[in-house]
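ping. complex inputs:
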Amino acid sequence: MRALLLGKTQQLVSRVFNHPVRPSAAVRWRAAQARLLCSSSPDEEKPRPSMLRHLTSKIKATGPIPVAEYMREVLTNPVTGYYVKNNMLGPDGDFITSPEISQIFGELLGIWIISEWMGAGGPKQLQLVELGPGKGSLAADVLRVFSQLQSVLSGASMSLHLVEVSPALSHIQAQNLTGTRNQEADSEDEPVYRRGETSTGLPVSWYRRLDDVPAGFSIFLAHEFFDALPIHKFQRTEKGWREVMVDIDPEKPDQLRFVVAPSSTLASSTLVQADERRHHVEVCAEGGVIVQQLARRITEDGGAALIADYGHDGTKTDTFRGFKGHQLHDVLASPGSADLTADVDFSYLRRVAGGGVACMGPVSQRTFLKNMGIDTRLQVLLRNCSDPSTRKQLISSYDMLTNPAKMGERFHFFSLLHPSRLAKPKTSEGLKLEKKSPAPLPVAGFAELSFS
Ligand code: SAH
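pong. complex structure:
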């Protein structure tokens, strides 16, 4: 069975890999900058006074606010939030992401999804759920793989579910994925705020929250989503853990500053682990809640989640930073004009996921993509491409994604799986385990596949 699954994943890979660069996709390859190396357009220099006014009146009314509240307001305030108002992705925006850099990235994730669907026995229903889909490029690349492997998936009824807080980005996603075949809900209260259909007839729905996505066997994707969720920051002091808050600078009333809360807050007394050894910690409680929801859904309905982001395993301290025009930006300066982000603490996600799901990783992006066969895919594309500039772009994009000094070691892949997925295979009678139990079935990306 193990050999069968490995063999099947390899077959999927070679079937997708035999497709050349699509003529339209070739232009999507471009030299890229990692989010950390981020030039400002003159327009972007303008501060957003309304967000600063909103924050200062809030602080004047109730006192300093937790960093998590600051981050939530700045990024997702329904009127002036950064994600709500901007199209921040790409060379002209504030940062660029792997799916925007290369089509291969989404193709390999498409193969991963089909492999996990097969690993689960090929259920009749397959919901692809993406959290924070950006421009929709990752979903588009995954759906292209689904079309190429239609015969494999033919038995499944498929649908795409996008969890997106930004109306502006949902509009771009709808254009990219459905053209004009989509429409907004009549009422703002509808859990599905937009519906559409791809050119191949696959239904697409947009939600503001994961909670609104219907139950059912699902594969969840979250690429550079968790790093955008609000973090609490805590500082170890002589009196114990204290929460870091955002206050108005008393000497410059139109500027903000960090202060340490004089006494403990609910967050500082509940979110820091008793055996914590660091002096400063960041905890993304909202990310924890989402992981618990994913874990519950996977346990109850089957499926898997693939979380890819930059992060650490409970070792880093102060990672909160801003990006504007592909440059680092002071997190408290002109709030709402720049992206805010913090490294994902994968050890925290693993802990809150609980025992109901199996966790894989985190493994580096380089390891994951190499295990998924990125080298073979690059060779096939190069073999089919004679244009020197496209060849150069193919190679530089590959390098950006996998080079340890670029995105290769900084980004990690982490997965939640239904526990049955890693269960040891039973004997042919289906009852007793063999004397020498075989290893659990391999999970693509986290285990090496060999390509002949
Ligand atoms: N996954 C994409 C985009 C990453 S940027 C890519 O890799 O290219 C973060 C995405 O998450 C954006 O689409 C943003 O609007 C969305 N987002 C941020 N906070 C969110 C929240 N709380 N709920 C839903 N979507 C959110």
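DSSP finds 17 helices and 18 strands in the chain.
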